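User: Can you write out an input/output pair for a complex, sequences first and structure second?

Assistant: Here is one pair. Inputs:
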Amino acid sequence: MAEEKASKEKKEKFADPAQASADPASQQMIARAQELGIDTAFDRAERLKPCNIGRQGICCKNCSMGPCRLPLPKEGIQGEDTRKGVCGATANTICARNFIRMVAGGAAAHSDHGRGVAEVFLAAARKENDNYKIKDPIKLKIVAEALDVDTTVEVDGEVKDRDIDEIAVETAEAAINEWGKPHGELIYAKRAPKPLYEKWQKLGVVPRNIDREIVEIMHRTHIGVDQDYRNLIKQGSRAAIADGWGGSMLATDLQDILFGAPYPVQAEANLGVMKEDYVNLVLHGHEPILSEMITAAAQSKEMIDYAKSKGAKGIQIGGMCCTGNELLQRHGIPPIGTFLQQELAIITGACDAMIVDVQCIMQNVASVANCFHTKLITTMPIAKMEQENTIHIEFDEDHAMEDAKKIVKMTIDNYENRKAEVMIPNETAIQVAGFGVESIAYHLGGTFRGTYDTLLANVLNGRIRGIAGVVGCNNARTKHNEGHVEVVKELIRNDVLVLSTGCNGIACAMEGLMSPEAAGVYCGPGLQEICETVGIPPVLHVGSCVDNSRILLAATEVANAAGCDICDLPVAGSAPEWMSEKAISIGHYFVCSGVYTVFGVTLPVSGAPVFQDYLFKEFEKLYGGMWDLEVDPIKHAQKMIAHIDQKRKDLGIDKARETLLKDMAESNKLA
Amino acid sequence: MSKLIAFAAIQGGYKVVSSVEGAYNQMMESYSADTKVEFPNTGYYLPIIYSLTGLKVEKLEDLRQPLEFAKKLLPPHIKGRHHLPYLGPLLDAGMAAVLSCEIAEALRIVQDPEFYYPYEDPDLENGKKWLGPADDIILRKRGVEFVDGSTSGFAAIVGAASSSAMAKKIIEEYQKRDLYIFCAASHRGTSIIDQLIEEDVQIGWNTRIVPFGPDITSAAFALGFANRVAMSFGGVQPGDYKKNLLYNKERVLAFVNALGDIGTEWGVAAAGCVNWGFPTIANTDIPEILPTGICTYEHVVANVPEEEIVQRSIEVRGLKVQVSEIDIPCAFGPAYEGERVRKGDLHSQMGGGKTQCTELVKMAEMKDIEDKEVKVVGPDVTDIKEGDTLPLGIYVEIAGREFQTDFEPILERQIHHLVNYIQGVMHIGQRDISWVRVSKSAIEKGFTLKDIGIVLHAKMHQDFGKILDKVQVTLYTKKEDVDKLTKTARAEYKQRDERVENMRDEDVETYYSCTLCQSFAPNHVCTISPERTGLCGAYNWMDCRASYEINPTGPNQPIQKGECLDSRLGQWKGVNEFVYKASRGTVDHYNFYSIVHDPMTTCGCCECIASVLPTCNGVMTVNREYAGDTPCGMKFTTLAGVIGGGATTPGFVGHSKFNITQRKFIRGDGPTDKDEGGLLRVVWMPKGLKEEIKDRLDERAKELGVPDFYDKIADETVGTTEEEVLPFLKEKGHPAMELESIVG
């Protein structure tokens, strides 16, 4: 008996590949890792149980009198909730503080990303940096107008187009000002539908600038400051809005100006994109400032020739996580995997370098790389790793091309160091991606008639039941990609058009849901007809996680076309496999913009039932949108559909609209 | 399925654009670059190009830019299973093709200026069956019908029906539904126009069957017509493509019928039409595009049997049309209004100088008449030989609780078009100078004079049921009866004229609005007073009052004129407030009686446009039938483009012909020593117009103390520039020469 017990203790737990991931490529690679004795997040998740109290959001470690843990009694709260921390903070206070600190973390990540873009954009506009140029002058004008920058000048009483360089500089200055301006309010708040903006004004949550709202969260959650969950979450709302309608939106807009607004492209997805006889360069992280340059370098003839001189057939670039999405939507470069596949890409043995910048880089990639020839290159001064084998090449925007070439050359040089054990799973799927707010409008009616009115018309007539934004990460606590794929399939089966970003986008692509052919296989008849008419997949890839602002703007376009607020529309949001603080910030700005938003896996508010109720129910009265949690993917989607149906009913469009004949008297009424 | 259409149509786009480009390049080699390129008598250049891009094509070299624009619109071909989205590209390819089609037609006119016969009706005897682009006169005249609701739109038919009998059937179905039929292209060597000619159907603008041209490129004329309607009546600015196309989607209820094999060129043209919101309904098995969005309902509907295509088409376009089923042996509808009974086809006639023909509507007591009673007193047309004549008296008695004697002339005026609506019967004139011609084909079908009574009874009930309860019609064909009726009628006319003539703006507190054209000119609102009749010539104050009685929520609403702000210029507080509201805030005031000071707005469908001639110190006016140059430097159509759309344009004003001789005509700009002498400012008008209004003009001139005024007004025989006109005016001693400066 004793012997048996000892051997049990010794025996380490491993993830069951078939249970860990819904994706065959990942299953193969998890098994491969186990065969090679390399541990991955899938195995670690088996061994390391999550802290149950942290999971409920009720552990406070904001001062050294704690950490104070206020677990829910097993039988639930009976009568008055008397739980208190040493300072007396209630469960609601602790939970709300923790929650908005997550908002602050997420908003900071997106917004700091945006700031970096704004700085490069300003340098490019001032022509102080010749590595970056304005690629999309049309988008520049749209952004300029949104930032109240004049795009025309009056010369002798005649209105003329303003010099594009002048517009660029002024736009860049206006943009960069948004992070720390001392007075006024976030200019982009007015891009929201008018009723929404007015709602924010009334609630006092129009952000003052981007940074301040994050700083204020840190202040208010310090011990002994804000101790009313309603007031705390109000600041969380203000910071989240500053993210979605500020830092993130500016990041997207300025990236589009610098690198081009997305247009539909065709590409493959999944690990099978990597090629054994090519130099495989994996770009992982979030910021196109880096990946755009490396891509340009890797696609240059000079580098391709160099790769060939080393015996490779060429250079295969693969994007990982949101860098994958950024490269996909602008260049058609295939994404090779979601967040949970980053270690697996190295385990193929064919990854010659993984170049990372910021956000969602698991530290373990360095350890996995150490088992192979793979070079793990960090590039950002704010994101380094302790492992000895990582190489840090600091990416300097002023010498961007130089740095990029250095990195690509290092990758190529590493090709010949490959060892024998290459194993690339033979799994890829084809997708059509690259739907920005502008390109969706174009595809709904061409150069002359492209507007969101077409989309709205089909929402009204019921062919499209509603629109869902499905976004977010992977989470090792749930089966990889299963939530993403099942939620989306259930939605499109019920004629809900899905706009997807982040790792959800990659997951859908890997499942084939982003191919136009998917319409005929997975969709309800109404959505199928629309997809076939427009020639689109039922799941539209609208970018990376910072690009969730595109979903806000698309919803705004539809709301404006309908003459209502976002919360009146049959729309819903979802993050089935979320894990990052960014997801909480995104979820919260969706909710504050009037969208019913359902999260999967877990939500760290269950330990404070009153606060949770406030988010799940009371919020709807304030913002028109509210939070929800549903672990089961089918129920998750069904909850969204129920909400969509309720909105259709409220709008009086729950019954499909019939043909209305019109005579002259009625055309007169139109006038 | 849409993918197949997109695939084929985009190919078609390349084909169309490249063949036009080839033709263009070839022409640039053999013609000088500054060779004039134009559609005849239009102020809208090549109208599709002008309306959508703002480019004014005048010379051969100007075509390069729109051609390059079209080329740039051509999207990549649709490839593979995992294609990129194609709806936007498909529509762009369609537009590229449409633009190229217009260029192709422009090139054709350069090469063969005689190819098209630019009139209302073709000259079949000389083999001129294709009319080509309608000029602006036709546009104005027909546009008014779109504006006032006498037509709802057009069916653009490309190709040919399976047989000429079927062609005739389809066309007649559309005619019955008051639609225009625009025809282009052919199928297996024949066109629907050829088929109709074979069936002896009268074609041309007058029967609403427009033979535009023999090729698919000729379909561009239909779209060009639609875009001109938007610009001239809707106030849409050239280059504002979005507004123009949406205007067409919402207001010009048109669609395409593709009859025959649809090749890639037809396909891409159909895709082009979708940009306008005009769907295609085909009789062949092609892929469909059903969902809503760009068009109001479906985009492409296929495989519709010819027997059902009319009904299906109007459903797809979302049109509500009423077919007036009237129990007579001939077809009936507005489409036949312009149809003529030519000499060779004439069976018999009444009036027209040969015999007396008189018509009269009188109010009767309810108990005295029988509703629906139609009596023919005397011989009928079936009793006489071919070529014979009869006298005719059409006597309509109307009774109703809401009926008033003021409505008599309004109802009487209906007789002209209602009789004309009968296929094979033609009506000219009114009152005691009427003229009815009956064709052999109508007689063959079984037409008798009684049918005139049936039509009048049925239509008057249909259109004026609100104000009448009983209609009794008596048709006299014996000379003594007709003479007796004529005597009564003349006394009646005199009394009526005096009543209207003596009516003064000062005498009434209520004016009427007319927003009939707001479906086309959303910001324009007419105000009609007794002495400022509707500028389209169709409505006077009485008509509006009757119209309001008939339809209290209709386009004619009473306006309490309220406080008078300026009696000489004609401005009232109540009117201003109404106009401000009805024009959606774009116009806050205007004057009834001035051209110089904030004149009334126009939608562009006015009968005449007056313009200040500063050098001549006077005013000219031009009627829309006159196509020539005028001393203000603009033709009617250009003028209409300048002032149409509902904006106040000082120096220009739209008005009816009748208004010229009304006392208050531009009185505000007349001699200061006369209260109502605006007419004396008129220094120029086309000869035809002058002759048309001579009697009334002389009478008014006499009142104003210038009995020979008629001879002092210059016309095109004197000159068409101010410099040519001025010496004439001086020589004749035109009163305007003595007046204070018109520009103040």
